[in-house]
């Protein structure tokens, strides 16, 4: 380390000397005054460095087994720099990346970062405030990392060999820590249909990867990057991933969508029903590449057209859940639409009381699998209502069944992406370290 620091000093002297070379013909005191200092100082510094280097390597003997043993003692801390670089390249600020790596490194260095407990078979974990009770004999500060060479199981769900367990306000959080490309394949296997063509799956793999990296750069929670459900992307572990999903992931390894030098927000949905929706109309924020486009390629989707019968009892339950007292004269109707025809608001009327509520809240209360989209009509039928509509999902971004329709008429995955995310470009992250996605895999 001493020699490294002195090398920086010597380089500074050399830089100053090179500045003099450019104006050697203008010999004046601005040159000679510098040279009177750097010549003797640089010579003495280099002489001292050579003596120290000779002493350092004279009789040097290397013992690989000792090197390996010493590396194991630091428990992987020598990976701190590659991890720091991977985080910054994924979009995390230098300060935040350093803070994350430092926290993890300190946990490894302290006694708490070593092996603290082992179990065979089942183990019962419980939150004790912000600490974790391991069985009935040990209590650890949160969080703890758990590894198992053969993988782990949580309530019957197979998880990867590494998970993070966090105690937060008396609740246990289980966070799956998964290599990025493995996570992309796992999500793709649950978000896309096995019958989809390779080009459709490749387009969706790029979207999943981009969405994940964007989420990692701005995680929704300090403990994890994304959740395992439809709020982000469906993740159900790393087992039972069919070959076509792994092939699509591998075929696009490292590829992401960029807009204006930044990762695009590659949201997607099952079926648009004929036309995608603008992000501004759904979330209030305009993205130039997330505006409405026509799409007739999702006609083979089972949700191209749908119907749901809502009973009076279910309508009253939903009304009460939304803060509206419900009686037998409850009426439900669409109140306002977006330019694509999707419901913007829903009007609930009971006697002389009327409430206008965001249609997205009504859909959530009714259940996404029942009211499949907001492109819908609501008609009173007997003792209830009939909901009929087009598509499945929020309608913004890529239409997944539309990608397969495009692939069936010969479109490649880049053309598919250009349709649903116009003005973006595919960029490669090849050669960068593979980051790890932290996914909220479940709770105990």
Q: What features would you describe in this structure?
A:
The chain has 444 residues and is α+β, with helices and mostly antiparallel strands. The chain has 13 helices and 21 strands. The chain has helices at 2-21, 29-57, 64-73, 80-89, 94-109, 180-191, 198-217, 243-251, 279-283, 312-321, 359-366, 400-408, 413-420; strands at residues 125-128, 131-134, 138-141, 144-147, 152-154, 157-159, 162-168, 171-179, 226-227, 255-259, 262-263, 268-269, 305-311, 331-334, 345-350, 353-358, 376-380, 384-390, 398-399, 425-428, 436-442. The strands form 7 sheets. Strands 4-7-8-21-9 form a 5-stranded mixed beta sheet. Helix 6 (180-191) crosses helix 8 (243-251), helix 7 packs across helix 8 (243-251) and helix 7 packs across helix 13. It is elongated and about 100 Å long. The chain starts with a helix and ends with a strand.
Count of DSSP strands: 21
Q: Helicity level, as a percent range?
A: 25-40%
Distance between the termini: 48 Å
How would the global form be characterised?
Answer: elongated
Low-pLDDT stretches: 111-117, 440-444
Could you report the average pLDDT, rounded to the nearest whole number? 85
User: What's the Cα radius of gyration?
Assistant: 30 Å
Number of helices: 13
> What percentage of the residues does DSSP assign to strands (E)?
15-25%
Short description:
The protein is of the alpha+beta class and 444 residues long.
Keywords:
444 residues; disordered C terminus; five-stranded mixed sheet; 22% strand; alpha+beta
């Amino acid at each position: 380390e001493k020699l490294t620091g002195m090398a920086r000093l010597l380089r500074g002297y050399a830089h100053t000397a090179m500045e003099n070379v450019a104006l050697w013909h203008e010999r004046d005191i601005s040159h000679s005054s510098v040279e009177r200092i750097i010549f003797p100082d640089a010579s003495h510094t280099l002489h001292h460095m050579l003596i120290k280097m000779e002493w350092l390597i004279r009789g040097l003997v290397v013992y690989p087994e000792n090197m390996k043993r010493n590396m194991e003692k630091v428990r992987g801390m020598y990976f701190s720099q590659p991890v720091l670089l991977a985080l910054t390249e994924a979009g995390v600020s230098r300060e935040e990346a350093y803070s994350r790596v430092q926290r993890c490194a300190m946990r490894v260095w302290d006694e708490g970062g070593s092996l603290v407990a082992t179990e065979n078979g089942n183990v019962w974990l419980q939150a004790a405030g912000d600490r974790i009770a391991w069985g009935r004999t040990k209590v650890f500060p949160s969080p703890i990392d758990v590894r198992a060479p053969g993988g782990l199981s949580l309530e019957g769900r197979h998880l990867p060999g590494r998970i993070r367990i966090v105690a937060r306000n008396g609740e246990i959080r289980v966070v799956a820590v998964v290599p990025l490309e493995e996570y992309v394949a796992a999500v793709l296997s649950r978000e896309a249909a096995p019958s989809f063509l390779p080009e459709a799956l490749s387009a969706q793999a790029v979207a999943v990867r981009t969405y994940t990296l964007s989420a990692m750069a701005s995680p929704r929670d300090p403990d994890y990057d994304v959740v395992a459900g439809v709020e982000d992307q469906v993740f159900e572990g790393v087992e039972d991933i069919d070959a076509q999903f792994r092939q699509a992931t591998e075929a696009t390894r490292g590829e992401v969508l960029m807009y204006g030098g930044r990762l695009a927000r590659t949201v997607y949905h099952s079926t648009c029903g004929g036309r995608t929706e603008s992000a501004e109309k759904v979330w209030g924020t305009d993205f130039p590449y997330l505006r409405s486009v026509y799409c007739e390629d999702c006609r083979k989707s089972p949700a191209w057209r749908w119907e749901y019968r809502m009973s009076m009892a279910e309508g009253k339950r939903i009304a009460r859940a939304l803060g509206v007292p419900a009686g037998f004269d409850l009426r439900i109707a669409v109140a306002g639409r977006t330019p694509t025809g999707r419901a913007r608001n829903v009007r609930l009327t009971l006697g002389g009381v009327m409430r206008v509520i965001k249609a997205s809240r009504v859909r959530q209360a009714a259940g996404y699998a029942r009211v499949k989209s907001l492109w819908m009509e609501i008609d009173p039928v007997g003792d209830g209502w009939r909901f009929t509509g087009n598509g499945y999902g929020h309608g913004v971004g890529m239409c997944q069944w539309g990608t397969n329709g495009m692939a069936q008429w010969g479109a490649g995955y880049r053309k598919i992406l250009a349709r649903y995310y116009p003005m973006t470009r595919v960029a490669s992250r090849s050669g960068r370290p593979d980051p790890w996605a932290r996914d909220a895999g479940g709770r105990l």
